[in-house]
Design brief:
The protein is mainly α. It contains 17 helices and no strands. Helix 1 packs antiparallel against helix 2 and helix 14 crosses helix 15.
């Protein structure tokens, strides 16, 4: 935008921009106000907002250093707005001040466009337009929020923006790379990814299908998602089994992508070793999932609706964060002494054993470097832990779907195909 000033006078370009932006804001605000209040209570039309913006710019350029004229004009407008608000409140019982605040922002556009870079004043206008148009969306969002949602978010902001910067980055135990800062940083990153998945599931894709539930749930916790889907599958008919198993495998596919993101955040060296295998594993899981999904769609011509249990708990509860931090510390200590006492063989065994629990703390401990571990060893143990966890998840799916469930044959086929290919890829990893 600043390059235009080389060909046209700056005052001309600024005047056109202020007029255009003011008109856009006026059109948006007039449409919303007519729906909410009606013509009677409006203090002006879209042209009024345009003239307010132009007035602010004219008063600014007449006294650009002292701002006396600009401040005086703002004071006059403030009096007029106060009178308008008083009439609306006393006669029509309309108490909102949003229109007045937007009018004051419009009045200040002149100095902003004249003094600030283009990205800033465009951002201001876009923000005003979006917040004006999304009023009903925010209302619906607030109605769907749980009672403790904002409290939980405030706790997360506290642990990430207040506690994390205050923690020391010094080792707690000799010879072990374990500091209060790294422990809490890992907890914050994992919680943030889980919370993003939770918000998407609860507020954006609330009416999603079964397959999308597996995608979003896998970003949060594949084990929890598979357990929920397996429990809900007890109520489905025999022909709907493939759809639920497909959603479970989609959760597994997203688990690979989640670890790809986490490993990339904490260790670029390990990421360069492991990323082709994680992408291939994710693609295989997604391919089998899609095959089962298409098999069900071709048979019925429709897709199942969402299961709402997957968003019943908030992944950012403070207790969950503390449990993850404790698990991270425990796996760090166990990994360190396993390497010292049992070597790489013992660590390989530990990677398979860790699959019976939450493998995220174990993998993040590996990629952050425990002792003198190489990147290839950390990558191999991470892949082994993931494959082991998939086997455990298959057991959870069999158990929670109930004895004699029609899902069992499809669980064995779907998970068996994924596990077989992943084991083959793991063998290729060792050969290469």
């Amino acid at each position: 935008m600043e390059k235009i000033y080389q060909y046209l006078p700056q005052e001309f370009v600024t005047f056109i921009l202020v007029t255009l932006f003011s008109l856009l804001i006026g059109l948006s605000q007039r449409r919303i106000s007519l729906k909410r209040e009606g013509e009677t209570t409006l203090f002006g039309t879209d042209r009024t907002f345009t003239f307010i913006g132009i007035l602010g710019y004219l008063l600014y350029i007449l006294d650009p250093s002292g701002f006396r004229l600009f401040l005086g004009g703002g004071a006059v407008l403030g009096v007029l707005f106060a009178l308008n608000y008083y009439v609306k409140q006393s006669q029509y019982h309309v108490f909102g001040v949003t229109t007045i605040v937007i009018a004051l922002i419009t009045y200040s556009l002149g100095p902003i466009v004249a003094t600030q870079p283009s990205w800033f004043y465009v951002m201001v206008v876009v923000t005003v337009l979006l917040l004006t148009e999304l009023k009903h969306t925010f209302t619906e969002l607030a109605q769907r929020m749980k009672n403790d949602e904002m409290v939980t978010l405030a706790k997360f902001l506290a642990i990430s923006g207040i506690i994390l910067p205050m923690l020391p980055d010094k080792s707690l135990l000799p010879g072990i790379h374990l500091t209060p800062y790294t422990i809490w940083l890992t907890t914050v990153v994992v919680s943030g990814i889980s919370y993003l998945s939770y918000l998407l599931k609860r507020y954006v894709f609330r009416e999603s299908g079964i397959l999308l539930s597996g995608i979003l749930g896998g970003l949060y916790s594949s084990t929890a998602t598979i357990s929920v889907l397996a429990r809900k599958s007890r109520t489905v008919c025999g022909g709907e089994s493939e759809e639920y198993v497909g959603a479970m495998l989609m959760a597994v596919s997203m688990m690979f992508l989640r670890f790809l993101i986490l490993i990339g955040i904490f260790s670029k060296d390990v990421l360069m070793v492991v990323w082709p295998y994680l992408l291939l594993m994710s693609a295989v899981s997604a391919g089998v999932s899609w095959w089962l999904h298409r098999k069900f769609r071709n048979r019925t011509g429709s897709s199942l609706t969402d299961v709402d249990d997957t968003d019943s708990s908030n992944p950012l509860e403070f207790k969950v964060a503390l449990i993850f931090a404790v698990l991270f510390v425990v796996f760090t200590i166990i990994t360190h002494y396993t390497l010292q006492l049992a070597g790489t063989g013992g660590l390989n065994v530990l990677s398979f054993v860790s699959g019976v629990s939450d493998i995220t703390p174990f993998i993040l401990n590996l990629v952050q470097g425990s002792g003198s571990m190489s990147s290839s060893l950390a990558a191999a143990c991470s892949l082994q832990a993931i494959v082991s966890n998939i086997v455990v998840n298959m057991g959870y799916a069999m158990f929670f779907s109930g004895r004699g469930s029609q899902l069992h044959p499809w669980i064995v086929r779907g998970f068996g195909m994924v596990i077989a290919v992943n084991v083959a890829l793991l063998a290729v990893f060792y050969l290469v």
